[in-house]
Amino acid sequence: MFDIDKWQEILSTIKKNKLRTFLTGFAIAWGIFMLMVLLGAGNGLSNGVSSNFEGNAQNAIWVWSRETSKPYAGFQSGRSIQFTMNDYYEIQKIKNVDKISARYWIGDRTYAYGSEYGNYNTQSCHPDFKDIEKFEITQGRFINEIDMEYNRKVMVIGEDIREALFKDVDPIGEYLKVGNVPFIVVGVYDEKDPREGTRQGLIPIATAQKLFNGGERIHNLALTTFDVSKEESQEVEAKIKALLAKNHKFDPEDQRAIGVYNSLEGYIETMNIFNAIKMFIWLIGIGTLIAGIVGVSNIMLIVVKERTKEIGIRKALGATPGSIIGLVLLESILITTIAGYIGMFLGISIMEGINFMMEQQAQAQVGTSGDQGEFRMFMNPTVDLRIAVSAMLLLVSAGALAGYFPAKKASSVKPIEALRDE
Length: 422
Description:
Blueprint: H1 4-16, H2 18-51, E1 60-65, H3 85-92, E2 97-113, E3 116-125, H4 129-133, E4 135-140, H5 145-149, E5 154-158, H6 159-166, E6 175-178, E7 181-191, E8 200-204, H7 205-211, E9 220-225, H8 230-248, E10 258-262, H9 263-306, H10 308-316, H11 321-369, H12 385-411, H13 415-420
Parallel strand pairs: 3-8, 5-7
Antiparallel strand pairs: 1-9, 1-10, 2-3, 2-6, 2-9, 4-7, 5-8, 6-7
Helix pairs in contact: 1-11, 2-9, 2-11, 9-12, 11-12
């Protein structure tokens, strides 16, 4: 393996046949290069679409009230449906419902702190809302059950409000006026999904209903399920629709009476599409690799054919079949390894370069417009290094196998027959 004379001979053979060696190496390098580019592009598509689901729980269901479109049980069509806290308590008991929050909208209000003020959206919710919306608490805490029990006038504000009104002051424990009502700021949140924005304040729903004459009224519901299948999630959705139809006396088949969005359905369907795309990419990439490996095998057959007389002389001088196999095999492995590494390096480098340019462009857009909330279809198009190395090892192994069979054939040729070869 480490015989210097053998390596010198291999290098000498490669130098004598530069074009043949280049074409063989190019086929291998191109194959693994295309595999890296295709995998990176597939990951970019998958990461881009997956990132659009990060702002909320992937197993979330949103329910909101609308108007009936059909007459039912003596009621005319066009009747507004109004949810109540009773709906919240009953849905909470449905099997496989995990987190749940009712929401009561307060709308835009003037927020004032010291000499600073601005108009911001205000809504109320339950403590579970943090896990449904995937809020990141950057300071303080979120609304808790004690706030709900004692109708505390506490508020969690978004990062945008903190920056605009509090500047460099720590907002935790400070009083913030919402209209004419003072609230104590107990937390600051940030949104994982930048499209949602952080220009709103959140207060306990029990407090909001008392202060803003809400009574038992709520505007919509948000909930998550446990780790369930798509079918089980759809079953929860169907039970919610049936329960609300019963409570508010509308036709269960009336599609316009209430609105329901099940994020798990959309997530699973989208991921299934991208899994199919990934599989297709792998098939194309592996097909390209196989074409390169077949090219190596054909080239090695030609090499052995050209060196038949030389092999005959070697055997006549006492060369063993193992040494002849090793000579041809090492040449195949050397070409495959070097060409494969070059292809892998270039493929990964290009995808990393594209990723770097995309990140720079995204930062520039945020810096100039402050808007980073567009729907992303392509994001972080990089290749997992473990997959790249595995593909490289597979390629070298296949290259060795491609060189073995011609070498085995050459080692079995009798010296006298080899010397007669034209």
